[in-house]
Amino acid sequence: MSSRRPPRGEYIETDTGNKVARKATLVGTQNIMLGGKTVIQPEVMIRGDLIRTIQASSQSASGAAPNSTAVSIGRYCFLSRGCCLRPPGRLYKGAFTYMPLRIGDHVFVGAGSVVQAATVGSHVHIGAKVAVGEFAIIKDYVRILDGTVVPPNMVIPSFSIVAGQPARLIGEVPEGGHEAFELRDIYKTVGNNPQPAPS
Amino acid sequence: MAAPTPYTYIQCPCSDVSTLSHPSDPNSPTGTEADEDDRTFDPRAPRSNYSLYPLEYLLYCEDCHQIRCPRCVAEEIVTYYCPNCLFEVPSSNLKSEGNRCTRSCFQCPVCIGPLAVTSVETKPDPRLLAPDNIAAPHSGPYALTCSYCHWSSTEVGIQFEKPNSIHAQLAKLRNGGTTRLTAKERKERRRDPAHRSATTEGEESGEQEDLDLETQFANLKAFYQNQLADPNSADSGLAALGDLGFSSPTSLSRIMSIYTGGSLQDKKAKSRVGAMREALEPDEGLQVANLDESAAIEQLQSEGHDGTACTAQRVDQPPHLGEEHLHGRGRFTSELRPIPYLLRTKRSKRCPICRHIISKPEAKVQTTRFRIRLVAGSYIPSIAIRPLSLSNGGGSASGAAAVPGALLDPLRPTHYLLTFKNPIFETIKVTLGAPSKTPGRFASKVTVLCPDFEIDANTDVWDEALKEGGGGGGGGGERDRERERRRRKREEGSQSNNNHNQLEVGKIWERGRNWVSIVVEVVPASLRVEAGDGPLREDEDVLEIPMFVRVEWEGEAGGDEVGSVPTRDRDTREKRELAYWCVLGLGRIRQS
Ligand SMILES: [Zn+2]
Ligand SMILES: [Zn+2]
Ligand SMILES: [Zn+2]
Ligand SMILES: [Zn+2]
């Protein structure tokens, strides 16, 4: 992003290709699932400690995900400097509990944004200084412009471009715009051995 | 709109009147060649606003071999769905239920945020009833509340008995909570003699019957239908025409329409229909307007401007549901009702000339796949613009605009790298044409150092095939390795090239597998306004270069797919060509 070359060893690179900045704050790492090839920049905060305290009976029967997962992130995601991923919480049968935050593949989260969605699909671009409210559902191929406030519980269907406070549909992702969500190239530009962006 | 700079916009041929008038010979672009050469394109012309698009927005017709834009394609709706619950709405429902979601999906009338059903008894808390929370302790009554601005439907006196089928419940409620009669109930009431006698008694006692909007409309409609159907529409002034057989308004209008075909009819028919009598009593739909607006004035005084609804809020309102009467409707935010979500659509797109489908999404709401998706980016080269800083040597050339987004210094030569990337599986020949001075009051000098070059084919068939089919899913390590290998190769190549790069006319700057970089030199104009000239207009400081791009290649003869199956059969090849204008936005010039 910036032209500044990071000093050597700024990132921890895992076996699955994740690049996690040493200056990122990951709380409750055992509850954070990374799919691989994901970049986590400095000053990012992920609240893996906010785990679900009440188990839904239906959920445990289906066995979809391990119940202790608070935040799951797919492949080729890019979490920009200073953004925050936080599981949403609510009252459930009279008691307060957090629910898991699930993020798909190729999801970009801009600098300084806060995401408290229930799910974020794949190929989603969240701009800088965006607030995604609790239990929002963001489907695939969605672009959220800088400074948007997505209200709690809002559903954003695929191919939406939203902006404003509160978020409002301002356009549709054109047919030729699907490839622009790919984050393979930007993945290579970050890390301990960053490569220049392809021309 | 503040466009991200630098940018490339491409002009769709539909803006060119000459191409539209000769749609039948798209395969012989040579016919219009002469005109194209003479004509220069002014990106600042008011009309240009409507014809320039970023590459992503453009489609491509394989039959016409031409670019198509959102403005000229013909759209067809594949699926209607609610953007909130994501349920598909069959088009048959659309006719009966309208184009809004009839589940419990509502938007806040004040801020358009989503509304959630909450129990009124416990303090309204949007967290309480998130979508899958079925087991939460429920107790009526319920209200719709906004999680963004905390508006609640209780503010307009609307509460619900059940937490489900909100749409049906809301349809029966007026603002303030009074019930709205359904069509069926109204019919029954009209037939019910007890009710009728009750109203006539009321009239006798001097009171005007209070008709609600729907009843009034139904009464009026019935009244006028009677008038039209009745051949001797009563005490009208048509008696004089009786001999001519014009006594019936319907036969009259029929005869008039035969002779006038419509235009005259209105005027004449009106005068005749005017001869019918008007509604005189509530049973016929007469409702005396309540002209006493003192309550509204009082409210305006107490709540002020903030209490009034803005135009956008009023436009979003479903018509004629909240109020009893037409007059005195929805002026205040305190009268706004929840807005049922407007349905969204998935649409396929057809070429306007040959009618072939060039984009077609799969019908299911939840899938993002396309059956057909012919995007221009797979057929015409992309153009990326990057400021070029010449750090070593170069002498006069400076790195003035090396930082993207920086202002351009007037009268100072600046260089830009244009990188053309070839998406098709054939080698293409690119010819560029740009006016030496940009159009407009402040003419910047433009020199394309290498306006003529070839770009190698996009040979990596595997990679593209995977990209098309995979839709971003798995991918796999092999693909990554392959990419990595290619990237390294390219890097080695460019490293060795870098030392030899020189600003030389007729030489390309750099070349890769399927791309070529060339240099454009610009001398930005000075924005000094002469005495007597008008002041600087909006965006007049933006340096935009109009550029004509001609792409030539050899394709499969007869075959429609320009770049899909790379069979190497030289005998069946034919020359293809595509030419279009585009505009390169380089940035803003510094105002001296
Ligand atoms: Zn067009
Ligand atoms: Zn709905
Ligand atoms: Zn609201
Ligand atoms: Zn066509």
Q: What's the total helix number of chain A? A: 2
Q: Largest interface, counted with CB-CB under 8 A?
A: A-B, 45 and 57 residues
Total number of β-strand segments of chain B? 22
Q: State mean pLDDT of chain A (0 to 100 scale).
A: 90
Low-confidence stretches of chain B are: 20-37, 132-136, 196-207, 233-243, 392-402, 470-476, 492-499, 559-567
Report strand order across the widest sheet of chain A: 1-2-5-8-13-16-19-22-23
* DSSP helical segment count of chain B: 13
Task: Give the distance, in angstroms, between the N- and C-terminal Cα atoms of chain A.
Answer: 15 Å
Helix-and-strand structural type of chain B: alpha+beta
SSE order of chain A: EEEEEEHEEEEEEEEEEEEEEEEEH
CATH class of the domain at 41-53 and 65-188 in chain A: Mainly Beta
Question: What small-molecule ligands were found?
Answer: zinc ion
CATH-assigned fold name of the domain at 41-53 and 65-188 in chain A = UDP N-Acetylglucosamine Acyltransferase, domain 1
How far apart the termini of chain B lie comes to: 24 Å
Q: What CATH architecture label of the domain at 41-53 and 65-188 in chain A applies?
A: 3 Solenoid
Family (chain B): Belongs to the dynactin subunit 4 family.
Region (Disordered) (chain B): 19-45, 177-210, 464-503
Protein name (chain B): Dynactin subunit 4
Pfam families (chain B): Dynactin_p62
Describe this structure in words.
The complex is a heterodimer of chains A (199) and B (592). Chain A has 199 residues and is mainly beta. Chain A has a domain at 41-53 and 65-188: UDP N-Acetylglucosamine Acyltransferase, domain 1, CATH 2.160.10. Helices cover 6% and strands 35% of the residues of chain A. Chain A has two helices and 23 strands. In chain A, strands 1-2-5-8-13-16-19-22-23 form a nine-stranded mixed sheet, with no helix packed on it. Chain A has a six-stranded parallel sheet with strand order 3-6-9-14-17-20, with no helix packed on it. A six-stranded parallel sheet of chain A has the order 4-7-12-15-18-21, with no helix packed on it. In chain A, strand 1 and strand 2 (19-21) form a beta hairpin. The longest helix of chain A is centred in the first third of the chain and has 6 residues, at 57-62. The radius of gyration of chain A is 17 Å and the shape is globular. Chain A starts with 10 loop residues before the first strand and ends in an 11-residue tail after the last helix. The mean pLDDT of chain A is 90. Chain B has a domain at 7-40 and 382-588. Chain B has helices at residues 17-21, 33-38, 91-97, 166-171, 183-191, 193-204, 213-229, 249-260, 265-273, 294-303, 311-316, 461-470, 477-498, and strands spanning 7-11, 52-54, 59-61, 66-68, 74-81, 88-89, 106-107, 115-119, 142-146, 339-340, 344-350, 357-361, 370-373, 382-388, 414-421, 428-433, 445-448, 452-455, 510-511, 515-523, 542-556, 573-588. In chain B, the strands form six sheets. Chain B has a six-stranded antiparallel sheet, with no helix packed on it. Chain B has a five-stranded antiparallel sheet with strand order 6-5-11-12-13. In chain B, strands 14, 15, 17, 19 and 20 form a five-stranded antiparallel sheet that branches. In chain B, helix 8 (249-260) runs antiparallel to helix 9. The longest helix of chain B is centred in the C-terminal third of the chain and has 22 residues, at 477-498. Chain B is elongated and about 90 Å long. Residues 20-37, 132-136, 196-207, 233-243, 392-402, 470-476, 492-499 and 559-567 of chain B have low confidence and may be disordered. The chains are: A mainly beta (199), B alpha+beta (592). Chains A and B meet through strand 10 and strand 21 of A and helix 13 of B. The structure holds zinc ion (4 copies). One zinc ion binds at residues 82, 84-85, 87, 101, 103, 105, 341 of chain B. One zinc ion (ZN) is lined by residues 61, 63-64, 351, 353-354, 356 of chain B.
